[in-house]
Amino acid sequence: MSKSTSSRKPSSRKPLVYGAGVVLAAALLGFVSYRATAPDHSGTSSSSSSSPVADATADPDADGYAELAKLARRDPGDKLAQGRVDAPVVLIEYADFKCSYCGKFARDTEPALVKKYVDDGTLRIEWRNFPIFGAESEAAARAAWAAGQQGRFWEFHRAAYAEGAMEKGFGKDRLKELAQQAGVPDLDRFVRDADSAAASAAVRKDQEQGYEIGATSTPSFLINGRPIAGAQPVETFSQAIEAAAEEARETEDAKGGEGAEGSAK
In this predicted structure, what is the pLDDT of residue 64? Predict the structure, then answer.
């Protein structure tokens, strides 16, 4: 995982306001992120002391997880998302195109999750631009958003995270080249959109959300509100997704049972 090395600039936008549950979960997300990147001074490796995944049985944090789960937009018009709007599980990813571990996740893990869970309707993936490595990070984020306006976000995402792509940088000409590789049909519009106030506002909104919920590094994830830090193995994500799906099914079954009981009275 890559750590944020840039200082957060003050924003003229009204700060996002969350309830006490999100404040609790934000602290947890920051803690999970820290433990996943902190050096091990014990001389031994302990999965229980440095787990990158929030404990699915941590009942005291349930309210915070529920609040964080509400950050899923489930917007059918969201061009930076894939998967069914009504999928039982939503994975939100906060990432930077200059982050090597984000690239590792994009190449090694995400395709397997898409094939196994997005394609069968279990999972929806929602991207959040979280540029933390300076001007090129922000330019790449705006460019990705601009590609999305023409329905080519995920193609741009693949091109930008391809092996060796990051080393070529994200200058204007390079971003236009990536857009061409991604099949963006109108490159002139792409350039205008990437430089627009709308692109800056969209990226800033995502970035502010990441900071507000306690993300301190990239990539950071929420799976139905439960944090995962770093480009973990496919198995880690699979376990979290399947646990979240089971929890969602149990919740729906409980609601159905309450409805049936109420109608019988």
Answer: 84
CATH superfamily of 18-37+51-264: Glutaredoxin (3.40.30.10)
- Picking from 145, 89, 137, the residue whose alpha carbon sits closest to that of residue 117 is 89
Q: What is the pTM of this model?
A: 0.79
User: Rounded CA gap, 134 and 140, in Å?
Assistant: 10
Cα dist from 215 to 32, 120, 212, whole Å = 9, 29, 8
State the pairing for strand pair 217-218/2-3.
antiparallel
Q: What is the pLDDT of residues 140-179, one digit of tens each?
A: 999 999 999 999 999 999 999 999 999 999 999 999 999 9
CB–CB of 228/10 below 8 Å? no
Tell me the CA end-to-end span of the chain in Å, nearest whole number. Answer: 54
Query: Distance (Å, rounded) from C-alpha 86 to C-alpha 74?
Result: 7
Return the domain boundaries, the chain: 18-37+51-264
Confidence at residue 6, expressed as pLDDT on a 0 to 100 scale: 42
